[in-house]
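Entry 14. Structure prediction run on the chain below.
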Amino acid sequence: MVVGSVGELMDLLRGGQGDGHGLRVAALLRRSHPFDKELQVAGLLIDHPAETIRPLLGERVARLLRLHGRGAPDAGPDPDAESLGHAAEAGRSPGLDAGVLEDWRPVLELVAAGSYGRTA
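Output returned:
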């Protein structure tokens, strides 16, 4: 399944919230990397397959999810993938106040529109 819109993505996230791991990871990344919205979104989607969101959210978000899923980057250390991994581990603690999923809709819409694309 490929997600084609932010609305579809929100439905997918609502259906798979489970223990809130993605919300906690995104919240941690929002604090540690406040200007990197793509990294935060990768954290939100940490438990979802990269290729389902690549057309909507872009290659960088999908690449971070792929690297995280493999446990190691292809070509040497990637600081963003390492940050994602650290936040994913820390996000396993259920006591963290991560907010609510609806807070992420505007960020998802902006990333989907390419407003936060990084060139480096």
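The CA atoms of residues 54 and 62 lie 5 Å apart.
Filed with the rest of this week's runs.
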